[in-house]
Amino acid sequence: MWAPPELRAVCLDIDDTLIDFTATGKRTLAALIGRSDMWATWERVTDEHVARVVEGRLDYAEMHTRRSHAFLTGLGLSVDLDDAAEFESRRKALLNRSWRLFDDVLPCLEWLTAAGVQLAAVTNASGAHQRDKLAALGLTPFFDHVAIAGEIGMAKPDPAMFESVCLQLGCDPREAVHVGDKLTTDAVGARDAGLGGVWLDRGGVCAAEAGETDDARESDGSAETAATGEDVEPGEAVPDGVHVLTTLAELPELLVSEFVRVGVPAPR
Ligand SMILES: [Mg+2]
Questions:
Q1: What angle is formed at CA 60 by the lines to CA 56 and CA 61, rounded to 5 degrees?
Q2: How many A from CA of 264 to the centre of ligand 1?
Q3: DSSP 8-state assignment for residue 140
Q4: Where is this region: Disordered (predicted)?
Q5: How much distance in Å is there from the Cα of 230 to the middle of ligand 1?
Q6: Distance 161 CA to ligand 1 centre (A)
Q7: What is the secondary structure of 25-58 as a DSSP string?
Q8: In which element (H, E) is residue 215 found?
Q9: C-alpha of residue 122 to centroid of ligand 1, in Å
């Protein structure tokens, strides 16, 4: 007889899912360089350098300096690697004073803990600083496992990343859900690895009218702190099998409706 899967683990992306990463990063970068129009460039340069780390061609400490060096020289500034390292340390100090959680995070983590599921943080970002961020924001005790792309040499949406997390948690992918702000990297990647894939569309890209721009949504404040859906156009259909939420406050209801045994003790 068919029975709904039992939910044993929930994986959560960190940046822009738990932590208001983009808004903080944008503000910090603008404060350091005195202009606010370079965030997209910064993200592109970062993606290029993170890819080299994942490929094993660069370590993280070196990546941060080289990323800042590439960014600053791209702005037309004449800087050497020492200048870039100094810029990077000022940027980090400012960031570390500025991180904040989205308001829906703690209630959601408390509900998940009370429901008795294991929790994993699954991030494509680098090494120890992700753990420092979780610790600084009081999130460490919630998580049974923290999976960091830079440490394990694979990254979302590679199914191997999700499979390794499930192995660590001792659950089958069908017994796990992953929630993240990037449609392809997080939700589609998780779905393809056999987990429940949940896209946290904080900016409301999914519900927006086709042709509507980020700026239009930002003007009413709704997308001010949220990343966009990466490769998603407003109004575009969401891939089959992907669930969409606009806030983590909606996660318990989704889990209860899709995984009816959440919170129900397993028979002995
Ligand atoms: Mg993210």
A1: 135
A2: 30
A3: G
A4: 211-238
A5: 10
A6: 15
A7: HHHHHHHHHS-SS-HHHHHHHHHHHHHHHHTTSS
A8: helix 214-219
A9: 9
